[in-house]
Amino acid sequence: MYQPPQFKGQAEQAAQLIQSHPFVSLISVDDTGLPYVTHLPLHLEQRPSSGSGQPDFVLLGHVAKPNPHWRYLQARPQAHAAMKAVYAAGSPDEQALAQWMDRLGMGTVDLEI
User: Fold this and answer.
1) Closest by Cα among 19, 38, 28 to 85
2) 3-state secondary structure (DSSP) of residue 58
3) What gap in Å lies between CA 96 and CA 89, rounded to an integer?
4) Higher pLDDT pick, 49 / 69
């Protein structure tokens, strides 16, 4: 996914957003090569550094056995997780703020996993 340099954030900012808004769209491909999406909560765990000097982050989640997504991930262990801080806005001021944040790419985290 292309991301302009001015919209790249810091790991700590992304971690805060993930912890406060853990509901994600997990996107991978099915057996026919089409996108497959599952909406689920993920838990972010911070672990001690493995030598890079930066903390390591691990995302934990669960896909129900009846959901075929787990088989797609087992066959092709690569996915994209997308999360957004603003789910809904009530007042006109909140709606304007949500639209402004969307246009600027604020309040979102996209992860290749």
Assistant:
1) 19
2) strand
3) 9
4) 69
